[in-house]
Amino acid sequence: MSNVYKPIQISDKVYWVGAVDWTIRDFHGYTTKRGSTYNAYLILADKISLIDTVKKPFKDEMLARIAELIDPKEIDYIISNHSEMDHSGSLPEIIKEVSPEKVFASHMGVKALHDHFATEDEIIAVKDGEELSLGNMSIIFMETRMLHWPDSMFSYLKENKLLFSQDAFGMHLASAERFADEIKKDIIEYEAATYYGNILLPYSPLILKLLDKVAVSGLDIRIVAPDHGPVWRKDLSWILGLYRTWAEQKPTTKAVVLYDTMWHSTEHMARSIEEGLIAGGARVKVMSLGAFHRSDVAYEVLDAGALIVGSPTLNNNMLPSMADVLTYLKGLRPVNLIGAAFGSYGWSAESVKQIQGILAEMKVDLVGEPIKAKYVPDKDTLLECFELGKAVADRLKQAAKNG
Ligand code: FEO
Questions:
Q1: Which of 115, 215, 251, 285 meets the CB 3.0–4.6 Å disulfide criterion with 305?
Q2: What is d(CA 302, CA 247) in angstroms, rounded to the nearest whole number?
Q3: Contact 87 CB / ligand 1 (< 6 Å)
């Protein structure tokens, strides 16, 4: 036995040679509670090809897995499907160590790799639809620009009906299992949805187009091998269907009540809105920012029809915790939301107006008037909050009926 890291065969002549990162908990602001994997794949065709690489600190783990199959110097081609550094961080060193005959990326990928690494190495640009012969096997490239970076592309291994999909259909999930069907389905669905809600949501219109493009292309896809998380070899229609549902963001009857609080006043308002929503027949998720991270919020908003946001005023502003989450959510561009703003204050009441402003920028359709409570909400204010919840629930039911 030469080393402890082993490759895992995922298809005829194709091996997973990536790395498992059990400890990562912060992926540029997204809480990765179950860690992640950086997947790379080795195709033992006549032209031995490596699909993507791994994050820089994991280079030796990847090379060790490859070394169980071949001398890494035997790699002929490296294909970079995505230049973000969790997949390209080790590429310059790999190129140096392996000296591959050719390195391929999309047109934008070539630029992105040069911009990242100021490399002198030649990287060959491939076009959408172009076919690359590996001798006894062949790869078709499919540009997926802005899914989720300008350089992103898919590579389809024709003979195995295998799609290397970079970030798409991936998830941040460290596991000993390499296939999705070996892992509990509720975990898979939760992590795939969290990944979609935190990374891919802004590109939903493009994802719908891509799903249509793949459908009409007639490509027969039997295995999907993403750059994070497990490989899909069963239930492809299930994950494709979920992607369509998430991308469409059709109105649902679920409301997210998001708040932070100083002395429980805004919290009491949130709980009263919650009661009104329940009385009106909505599904409700109440999220205190003391208990939930911004990426939990993104997950819950993915299938919500309403976003109701509350913060007290602190030093003429909403609480910084809420500014963080709203900035994050605005960037994720959820659509088809209705909503409202609320919060307590002492002597000035800027927070509610600021929240309303951000919700308006997010094109959230505001229901009713914002509700403010001086210091501590009285009974009438709490009843007003309850009625706001009911009004939102009514609108949700109507939208779901029409939707
Ligand atoms: Fe997994 Fe967009 O990098």
A1: 251
A2: 9
A3: yes
Rounded Cα distance, 308 and 233, in Å: 39
Q: What is the pLDDT of residue 296?
A: 98
Q: Distance between CA atoms of 297 and 285, rounded to whole angstroms?
A: 10
How many helices (H) and strands (E) would you count in the chain?
12, 24
Distance CA 377, CA 383 (A): 10
CA distances from 46 to 77, 135, 137, 157 (A): 11, 5, 8, 14
pLDDT the model gives residue 134: 98
pLDDT in the model for residue 235: 87
Q: Is 228 in the pocket of ligand 1 (CB under 6 A)?
A: yes
Specify burial of residue 67 (Cβ count, 10 A radius: 0-12, 13-18, 19+).
middle
Whether ligand 1 lies within 6 angstroms of the CB of 82 is answered as: yes
Looking at residue 160, what is its pLDDT?
Answer: 98
CB 259 within 8 A of CB 311: yes
Name the residue with tokens 């630029």: 111
Distance 34 CA to ligand 1 centre (A): 16
What pLDDT shows up at residue 1? Answer: 56
Q: Measured from the CB, is residue 61 less than 6 Å from ligand 1?
A: no
Q: What is the rounded CA–CA span in Å between residue 53 and residue 63?
A: 10
With residues binned 3-state (H G I as helix, E B as strand, rest as coil), the percentages for the chain, rounded to 5, are: 40, 25, 35
pLDDT along the chain (403 residues), means of 10: 90 98 97 98 98 98 98 98 98 96 98 91 95 98 94 97 97 98 98 98 96 88 98 96 97 97 98 98 98 98 98 98 98 98 97 98 97 98 98 95 80
Nearest-angstrom CA–CA distance, 271 and 286: 8
- Contact predicate 131/139, CB 8 Å: yes
DSSP secondary structure string, 264-308? SHHHHHHHHHHHHHHHTT-EEEEEETTT--HHHHHHHHTT-SEEE
The catalytic residue positions are 28, 82, 84, 86, 148, 167, 195, 228
Is 143's C-beta closer than 6 angstroms to any atom of ligand 1? no
Distance, CA 228 to ligand 1 centroid (Å)?
8
